[in-house]
Design brief:
The complex is a heterodimer of chains A (422) and B (358). Helix content of chain A is 42%, strand content 21%. With 422 residues, chain A is an alpha/beta fold. Chain A folds into 2 domains: 197 residues, Rossmann fold (3-Layer(aba) Sandwich), CATH 3.40.50.2300; 182 residues, Rossmann fold (3-Layer(aba) Sandwich). In chain A, the strands form 3 sheets. Chain A has a 6-stranded mixed β-sheet. By secondary structure, chain B is mostly helical. Chain B has a domain of 221 residues. Helices cover 72% and strands 1% of the residues of chain B. Chain B has a two-stranded antiparallel sheet with strand order 1-2. In chain B, helix 5 packs across helix 11 and helix 12 runs parallel beside helix 15. The longest helix of chain B has 28 residues. Chain B is globular, with a radius of gyration of 22 Å. The chains are: A alpha/beta (422), B mainly alpha (358). At the A-B interface, helix 1, helix 3, strand 3, helix 4 and helix 5 of A face helix 4, helix 7, strand 2, helix 13 and helix 15 of B.
Chain lengths: 422, 358
């Protein structure tokens, strides 16, 4: 008995510090902070896959230094994220963190990044506006657009192309719901549209009866800022109530879970415009090459048919880290000062077009407008109909104008004032 | 050899006992002094990650779990509410004190904030305790789980007080006596001190008239009622008393993470507290801290263990699950029960009559 216990202790003692001693001067360590548990687990796994994909393109070495990765799994709760980030920095001694995945994690990481000024954090795919807008951390870089930017361009598209001017909104009652709606609403109101009424729906609540009963009749379309099962539930109940109108989708509305859902939900979906950071059928050579690389690198049962939003985000973040490290020849001395400078100046040619950073280290890039169409096999799919290039953090306004609008919340966008040009 | 080891302390204990009343220092076994020394000297050898993250989290989780151990072990009431109480105290610190969400946080001084947080959490615990104590066994678990779930959804959907989904960030401990309490060493000693205080209080109260009456209520409520004890009042008081430990853990948790959001007090966290208490063993308050240490080690290092064996880190929950399953399977009364049985078995190697090895 005593010998068994001794053996267990010895095994544990050998295993635990293993990773701590593995570090040596020659390698660059990258920590991948990613959700591998909960609702985003599948997307998070695609993120890890894409980091490996990007590193494989350079054979895992930069400037003669080998790159090593450490995966730190989270469950999308901000406190878990901070714990895992602290482990990456203090225990695994990584040089660079790539992550996190979701909005509230991003805000928590912004504050944590301030406590590790000597390391660089490159955002995975988290999209909260506050992360790089309110009190940003000098070593936190975000190469993806934020939730408000993802909604931009859609508003003017529906006004100008479709002539839909009166809209009622139903969006998720949480940070991403507000942020994504805010980007749409600013653009929509400035183009001359009017938001008649706003409904906010708590995440995961299955019953939409109260909202459907209150929907006004004389509107051109409904803006639906919901995702996953919430969107499916709404669409089914809306159909059952015998209603029918046109829809405008938020960024997470017309994803694969909704498009492939069984039931009559899809009848109302055809022709719905949405906006987001990529278009599956983007004809750009860079995008097509990336999709082919992704499909060729992993067997079909170990990947998505095409890269997911999360995978794309982590791919671009890793690409940025690689370009930055190449520019300085892998030099991370002096609190990574040269690396940080290189990242600040980077003009990143990514699969979704050129990305630059502003003074808050937030990306300026392209937003794609997609429309739901019926594919050749009868399933619904997204078709790219327009793109808006160079969408800035302040959505084309000055910083003062944008700051005057306020932070995303239920009532933040004053539509009448924006329509009047204010 | 082992005979001499076994006989030594026992003999000396016998002598001191006959010599008259002993001082409290002599009554504490040497193993405890050794443990105290190791814990106090830990900042000399351990790095910041171990002090702040591993040990800090262990003590915090242990404090929240010890409030459950107190209720379940001495009062016979398994409550899933302790994480919610901890979360409420943490939320109160964020709402009443300073935080990054300046539109809601009142920014009051710590000497108002801390007592108010303890008080509000205690009121919440008393009220929900009063609801729960009318039930027994599985129904207590159900009703406390229902309250915990309701509180979780309330914080997630209420924006005027709890700031909904995003919660509060940049909640930092006050700079008292010129010490930055979030500095790893200072925070370690703060947590160690609070945990020791909680442990000592639970041990002391369990031997006090109130603690003995509570254990009587646990074992035979009808007889206690016949003896003139107010059973309900004792149970409600136990809920109120246990809230102190949970609140202390909750406040330290907020300071450690510098933030609190509904995810902190979700259903899975509430169940995690139960897991910690069960794994450690509910018979003694020490079990809560042992369980917390095991939980933290598994949570922190399971991805590395998988990686060391060449598995994908995605499956890290597997290690955690197997670990807990193994403990519960081999020892229904937790790790401490395992330890007790091991001690009993090694003790039996010496024949109790002759003192000779068997």
């Amino acid at each position: 008995m005593r010998r068994t216990i001794l053996a267990i202790f010895a095994a544990v003692a050998i295993l635990l510090p293993g990773s701590a001693f593995a570090q040596s001067g020659g390698t660059i360590k990258i920590g991948i902070l990613v959700a591998l548990e909960g609702a985003f687990a599948a997307g998070g796994a695609d993120g890890v896959r894409n980091v490996e994909l990007a590193l494989k393109q350079i054979n895992g070495t930069i400037g003669g230094r080998r790159i090593e990765t450490v995966v730190a799994p989270t469950d999308t709760r901000p406190d878990t994220t901070i714990r895992m980030a602290r482990k990456l920095i203090e225990q695994d001694r990584v040089d660079i963190i790539i992550g996190p995945l979701s909005g509230s994690e991003g805000i928590a990481m912004r504050d944590f990044a301030k406590t590790i000024p000597g390391n660089v954090v490159i955002n995975g795919i988290s999209g909260a506006l506050e992360t790089t807008w309110v009190d940003p951390a000098p070593n936190f870089y975000r190469f993806n657009l934020d939730g408000a930017q993802w909604g931009f361009g859609l508003g003017s598209y529906v006004v100008k192309q479709k002539n839909w001017r009166r809209v009622v909104s139903i969006a998720g009652d949480y940070s991403f719901g507000y942020t994504n709606f805010m980007g749409f609403a600013i653009d929509f109101c400035r183009a001359g549209g009017d938001i008649v009424q706003r409904f906010w729906h708590p995440l995961g609540q299955a019953d939409f009866g109260a909202i459907i009963a209150q929907l006004p009749d004389n509107v051109d379309a409904i803006y639906l800022g919901l995702g996953g099962t919430d969107a499916i539930n709404f669409l089914n109940q809306y159909q059952q109530a015998g209603e029918r109108t046109r829809l405008i989708g938020g960024t997470i509305m017309a994803d694969q879970t909704v498009l492939t859902a069984r039931g009559r939900a899809k009848e109302v979906l055809t022709g719905t415009p949405t906006s987001g950071p990529f278009a599956v059928d983007n004809p750009d050579a860079a995008w097509q090459a990336y999709v082919k690389l992704y499909q060729d690198s992993f067997p079909a049962n170990q990947r998505f048919p095409t890269p997911s939003l999360f995978g794309l985000g982590y791919y671009i973040a890793t690409l940025a880290a690689i370009r930055g490290l190449e520019a300085v020849g892998g030099d991370l001395s002096n609190g990574q000062a040269r690396f940080k400078e290189a990242l600040n100046k980077i003009q990143l040619d990514s699969p979704i077009g050129r990305i630059t950073l502003n003074e808050n280290r937030q990306a300026t890039g392209t937003v794609f407008i997609n429309e739901v169409v019926e594919g050749t096999d009868g399933n619904l799919t997204n078709k790219m109909v327009a793109r808006t290039d160079n969408v800035t953090q302040t959505l084309g306004m000055t910083a003062e104008q944008y700051r005057a609008i306020g932070l995303p919340s239920r009532n933040v966008v004053d539509c009448a004032r924006l329509r009047a040009g204010g | 050899m082992s005979l001499a080891d076994q006989a030594g302390p026992r003999a000396s204990a016998g002598i001191t006992k006959t010599a008259g009343p002993t001082s409290w220092i002599e009554r504490i076994p040497p193993a405890w002094w050794a443990a105290a020394l190791v814990l106090l000297a830990m900042p000399l050898v351990a790095n910041n990650f171990w002090l702040f993250q591993v040990m800090g989290w262990t003590f915090i989780l242990g404090m929240i779990a010890v409030s459950l151990t107190f209720l379940a072990g001495y009062g016979g009431m398994v409550s899933l509410l302790q994480m919610s109480i901890a979360g409420l105290a943490g939320y109160m610190v964020a709402i009443l004190g300073p935080s990054g969400t300046t539109s809601i946080s009142l920014g009051l001084s710590w000497w108002i904030v801390l007592p108010a947080a303890f008080l509000i959490a205690a009121i919440f615990a008393t009220l929900s305790g009063a609801l729960a104590v009318r039930t027994e066994g599985i129904y207590t678990i159900m009703i406390t789980l229902a309250i915990a779930a309701a509180f979780f959804y309330f914080t997630r959907q209420n924006y005027t007080i709890f700031n909904g989904y995003s919660g509060f960030n940049l909640v930092l401990p006050p700079r008292l006596f010129g010490v930055d309490w979030r500095d790893p060493t200072a925070f370690y000693y703060l947590c160690l001190g609070c945990a020791a205080l909680c442990y000592g209080t639970v041990v002391y109260v369990s031997r006090s008239p109130f603690g003995l009456a509570l254990q009587g209520v646990r074992d035979n409520p009808r007889r206690m009622a016949a003896l003139g004890f107010n059973v309900t009042a004792h149970r409600v008081a136990a809920h109120a008393f246990a809230s102190i430990f949970a609140s202390m853990g909750g406040i330290l948790l907020v300071w450690q993470n510098a933030q609190i959001a509904p995810g902190t007090i979700g259903i899975s966290s509430a169940i995690d507290v139960l897991v910690v208490a069960v794994v450690g063993g509910m018979r003694r308050p020490l079990g809560a801290f042992v369980g917390a240490f095991i939980y933290v080690m598994l949570q922190t290092f399971s991805p590395d263990i998988l990686g060391a064996f060449g598995f994908s880190a995605e499956r890290f929950k597997l290690i955690i699950g197997i670990g807990f399953l193994a403990v519960v399977l081999f020892s229904p009364d937790g790790v401490l029960g395992l330890w007790d049985r091991w001690r009993a078995r090694t003790g039996r190697r010496v024949d109790p009559l002759t003192g000779q090895p068997r």
